[in-house]
Write a sequence for this structure.
């Protein structure tokens, strides 16, 4: 280890020393520092953090890996009237990164040798015996860039440059050559898709331009360190999103620290640029470049059919040095491979666990497949890279961080073949405390867990649920009335002949009968202790669901006749999946139904389904993003609907702050279990305006958060 | 008789040789306008500082020196020039008009003889004064030497039609201004006629330029009047 460090130090010292040992005769022009396209110049050359434009190869080779396909661009400009500069750049995507190639060349001639006039005046005159001198200066660059995952996209790039300068003319023919390296980085944070930051180190080796021929000097080419940022202000994935309609605005700011470059000053420079697209095909640009005399640059771009034409105007205080720069670029859409699929054909299917599964462990194993893909390169869960076990287009991955309560798990798989791209799928998992007599493979485990979580079937004080225990009529109607949220008024007289007003279930039975959930027997009794059969449960629960029953001519079960008194309700229950737990052809309609079966059937009813959905709902209102509660939502009123014919709504939410100790709804404390992250409470609605107030309570019942909604029941 | 003829011939040969060897040579003239040696067809300032250097091989008769100028058919004898006798064989006269000359083409005359009575005259013709028109360059600017060693510098020359404030902007071929050399109107580099300005091969930040071609613009009174390209080559 120590040896390695010593080695590093020695190499560093040697590297630094080489920078000092070289003695330069002078500083010569390094065209790669000025090789930009018209788009970049129009933006004041502040494009260090710009993505995917091939003309950025000289300023930041890392940017090329953001291109979607191969692309080329050519730029032409004329400086000072007769210096022609040509820039060409291209980038080519491969499976292992992006290869870039760039060329910048300028040439001019007609510098005339002179002599002193031989007469007494000694004036400078053309040398009639010599021909004019010409000059060429070019740089060829090859680059490689590749993105790596680092809390977002980080692209790293390297460029190898060869310099070639030549002076041609009598007594002056000479040629200078050099090679050097550029490094670049471009970072796009995952959480801030509208921001990118760039860095580049140009001419890392500080190689001299070595001349031979008429000159044997070593000239400095200089270099620069650049940092910059770009903000996508308006448009898709921008800071302001679509608040400015179709307008697309990009702003950029770069800083350059030149290092021994040919310039009137080697101080730090700033560059700023703005690109505004009022429509997608037209771009207007304005830039400020502190390093040039001109200061402000202007530009326009036209985009059509994968071609882009850019023009930039650099106004110099000296009009003869005004520059007009033209670029033409072509960037075809990525070619679809022969077996390419249409958009949407790549689907990430999570095979296990099933959506809305309830678990007790903190970790789950996810098994998924990307349909139509050949190969998967990377898997992220909730934005974090995981180490999947990949087999072709399927993978297994562990997610070890389930929270108590509802977990919305975003699974993202990056396809490597036949195309590249990402597919996303979401999995809802409820993590709850284990119920001791409900095993993991019990058919109604998830429904029981949800109803328990929603507070509708709480189980017994010993922590059991007794899922195989029969349920009687009194227990069932109590459960249903609570779920509906009907208010229970004290009774003055007994509602049924066999049920005194003091009976614990008398109020529920009375309301259930009044609301049509159950009917008493013709003799005026209710038979509260009578166990409920499967057929009776189907009837009661279909009423609970406000089902529209259809005429039935054929029974789906061998032991239920088509003219059975409950056939319509049984068919409805089967159609809604309430009886899916029954294996075989017989229903055994007269068999007593168990608590577990009731939980299963109820979990398929619209009201309870909506309630379960709400547990995983994303924030839908501004109140939802407060620190105290991740969301508070109302079911079945997920949006801003304020009118309803429902008799009740369920207020459900998720607590994300440790400060929240409890939730109070309309003044009633829920008395949450310690550490409970989710809550749901049924709130009965009266006809007319109902004001629902939800408060998050902290220590000492201090209000941490409050939201209020008015719901009108028709 | 033969002796007499021989003596006569020898005498004639001697006298002829003496005439050849001892005859007085007329003085030379050199004309300087604003300190720059002028030649025919130069453009000069409308308020030129005229200096005529008269250099003889024998003693000059300072009282014989005269000066005049003409424009068209009108000739004006200058009487208020100053005279500076450097030595018995060299004299300089100076004249600066009290008011600006009108635009036109001028001839400057000077006359002197030596004590041997050998007269000589000088005239510089085609001297143009373009004082009222906008400044421009006559011909293309040049630099010498070209190519030049950047550690030794180079001279940039140009002909101005009138006194002007001059800025020589030197650029690399990326169009970046490396240095700006400024001269005031009427001073060396900003005078009508021939000018030379020295550039030491360094940029505004003091760097010596490397091998390559550089462009320059001559900006007179704020307008670009000429441009050229020069080559730096370190030998």
């Amino acid at each position: 280890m120590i040896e390695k460090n010593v080695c590093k130090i020695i190499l560093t010292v040697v590297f630094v020393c080489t920078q000092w040992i070289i003695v330069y005769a002078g500083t010569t022009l390094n065209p790669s520092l000025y090789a930009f396209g018209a788009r970049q110049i129009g933006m004041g050359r502040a494009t260090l953090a710009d993505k995917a434009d091939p003309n950025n190869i000289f300023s930041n080779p890392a940017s090329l890996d953001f291109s979607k396909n191969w692309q080329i661009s050519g730029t032409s400009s004329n400086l000072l009237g007769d210096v022609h500069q040509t820039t060409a750049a291209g980038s080519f995507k491969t499976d292992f990164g992006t290869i870039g190639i760039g060329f910048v060349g300028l040439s001019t001639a007609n510098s005339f040798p002179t002599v002193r006039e031989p007469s007494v005046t000694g004036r400078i005159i053309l040398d009639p015996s010599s021909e004019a001198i010409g000059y060429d200066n070019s740089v060829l660059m090859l680059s490689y860039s590749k993105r790596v995952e680092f809390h977002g996209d980080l692209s790293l790039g390297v460029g190898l440059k060869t310099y070639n300068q030549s002076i041609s003319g009598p007594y002056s023919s000479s040629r200078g050559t050099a090679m050097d390296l550029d490094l670049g980085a471009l970072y796009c944070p995952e959480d801030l898709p509208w921001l990118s930051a760039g860095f580049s180190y140009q001419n890392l080796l500080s190689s001299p331009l070595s001349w031979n021929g008429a000159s044997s000097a070593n000239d400095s080419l200089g270099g620069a360190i650049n940092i910059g940022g770009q903000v996508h202000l308006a448009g898709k994935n921008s800071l302001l999103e679509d608040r400015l309609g179709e307008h697309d605005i990009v702003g950029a700011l770069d800083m350059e620290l030149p290092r021994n470059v040919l310039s009137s000053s080697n101080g730090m420079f700033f560059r700023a640029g703005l690109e505004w697209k009022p429509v997608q095909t037209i771009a207007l640009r304005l830039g400020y470049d502190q390093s040039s005399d001109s200061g402000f640059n202007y530009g326009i771009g036209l985009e059509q059919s994968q071609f882009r034409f850019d023009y930039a105007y650099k106004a110099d205080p000296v009009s003869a040095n005004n520059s007009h720069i033209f670029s033409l670029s072509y960037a075809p859409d990525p070619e679809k491979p022969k077996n390419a699929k249409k958009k949407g054909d790549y689907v990430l299917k999570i095979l296990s666990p099933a959506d809305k599964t309830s678990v007790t462990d903190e970790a789950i194993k996810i098994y998924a497949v990307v349909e139509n893909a050949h190969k998967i390169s990377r898997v992220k869960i909730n934005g974090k890279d995981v180490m999947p076990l990949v087999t072709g287009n399927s993978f297994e991955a562990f997610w070890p961080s389930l929270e108590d309560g509802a977990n919305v798990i975003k699974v993202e798989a990056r396809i490597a073949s036949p195309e590249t791209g990402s597919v996303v799928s979401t999995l809802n998992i409820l993590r709850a405390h284990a119920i001791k007599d409900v095993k993991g493979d019990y058919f109604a485990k998830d429904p029981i867990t949800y109803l328990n979580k929603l507070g509708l079937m709480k189980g017994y004080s010993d922590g059991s649920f007794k899922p195989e225990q029969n349920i009687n009529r009194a227990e069932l109607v109590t459960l249903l009335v609570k779920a509906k949220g009907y208010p229970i008024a004290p009774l003055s007289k007994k509602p049924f002949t066999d049920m005194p007003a003091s009976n614990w279930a008398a109020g529920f039975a009375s309301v259930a009968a009044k609301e049509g959930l159950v009917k008493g027997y013709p003799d005026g009794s209710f038979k509260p202790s009578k166990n409920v059969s499967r057929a009776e449960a189907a009837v009661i629960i279909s009423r609970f669901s406000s089902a529209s029953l259809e005429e039935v001519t054929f029974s789906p079960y061998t032991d239920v006749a088509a003219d059975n008194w409950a056939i319509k309700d049984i068919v409805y229950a089967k159609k809604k999946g309430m009886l899916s737990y029954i294996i075989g052809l017989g229903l055994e309609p007269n068999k007593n139904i168990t608590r577990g079966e009731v939980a299963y059937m109820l979990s398929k009813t619209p009201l309870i389904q909506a309630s379960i959905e709400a547990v995983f709902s994303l924030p839908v209102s501004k109140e939802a993003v407060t620190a105290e509660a991740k969301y508070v939502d109302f079911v079945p009123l997920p949006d801003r609907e304020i009118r309803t014919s429902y008799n009740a709504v369920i207020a459900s939410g998720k607590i994300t702050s440790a400060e929240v100790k409890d939730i109070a709804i309309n003044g009633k404390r829920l008395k949450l279990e310690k550490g409970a992250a989710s809550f749901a409470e049924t709130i009965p609605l009266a006809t007319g305006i109902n004001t629902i107030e939800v408060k998050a309570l902290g220590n000492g019942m201090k209000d941490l958060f409050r939201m209020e909604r008015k719901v009108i029941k028709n | 008789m033969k002796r007499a003829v021989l003596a006569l011939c020898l005498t004639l040969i001697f006298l002829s040789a003496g005439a050849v060897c001892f005859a007085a040579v007329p003085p030379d003239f050199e004309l300087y306008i604003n300190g720059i040696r002028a030649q025919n067809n130069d453009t000069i300032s409308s308020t030129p500082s005229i200096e005529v250097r008269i250099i003889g091989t024998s003693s000059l008769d300072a009282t014989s020196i005269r000066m005049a100028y003409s424009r068209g058919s009108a000739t004006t004898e200058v009487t208020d020039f100053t005279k500076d006798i450097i030595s018995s064989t060299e004299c300089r006269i100076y004249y600066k008009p009290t008011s600006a000359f009108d635009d036109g083409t001028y001839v400057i005359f000077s006359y002197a003889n030596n004590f041997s009575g050998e007269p000589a005259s000088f005239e510089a013709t085609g001297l143009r004064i373009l004082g009222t028109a906008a400044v421009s360059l006559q011909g293309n600017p040049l630099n010498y030497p070209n190519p030049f060693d950047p550690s030794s510098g180079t001279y940039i020359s140009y002909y101005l039609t009138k006194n002007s404030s001059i800025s020589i902007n030197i650029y690399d071929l990326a169009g970046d201004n490396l240095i700006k050399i400024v001269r005031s109107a009427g001073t060396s580099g900003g005078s009508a006629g021939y000018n030379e300005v020295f550039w030491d091969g360094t940029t505004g930040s003091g760097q010596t330029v490397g091998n390559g071609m550089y462009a320059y613009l001559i900006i007179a009174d704020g307008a670009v009047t000429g441009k050229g390209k020069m080559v730096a080559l370190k030998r």
